[in-house]
Sequence to fold (238 residues):
Amino acid sequence: MRRCCKLLQRLTADTILWRHILHSRNAARIQSLLFELPQRPTRMDLARANILRVLPGITRQLSDGAYIGEYTAVRSYEALRFIERRMAATRVERRLTLRPGIDEMRQRNLIPRYGQALPSGTILVMVQSLNRAMKLDTLRRHLRSRISADALKERGVAKIQTVTSYNRALLPQAVLLEKRLLQSRLSSKLERRPSASTLEGMKVLRSDSSSALLICPPIRDKVQFFEGVGRKRAMTCL
Fold:
């Protein structure tokens, strides 16, 4: 400042002003930046994020600002981490022993079948690429041999719909309108069909008991006969 502007030379030489800037103003700014602004995480937040490595039961020391780097605390934390790692390794080993073998995975088609041993990485990639190419060639051959759209239209399988202008917003309304037209035509056809009494008068529908027995005779006697045979066999075995 003294070299840039001659008017500031007196301010740079003022020891009282500089003492105030260093010890009062800057200290207050540092204090506010470190402890008052919300963007700086607390010791509890650092402990939850596993940045400040402490034992899980010393929340009171963290909130009070006490020193947590004693020898016993560090050794206890290292022992706890060692036990957790050993337990995790034990669980992984137990899961690995329970997983199926290579032969069983081949039978389930989880891994490809390439003889007794898996090929190297380069050969495996080539084999997989060849299999994909063969499947793609088979799919293309089937697509070439399928019936064309014109043949389906001639047979009446595919519906012919003429679209003059395509509008994405009106497409759901068009589908809903076609559905309602089909329901209307079906309802009108159902209303025109004859009733059950009319069909009975025309001898088309028979709902009396004698006709029902002719169509589906009773099976109670047969059921009783086979139940008796089963009971006789059971008595004979005893």
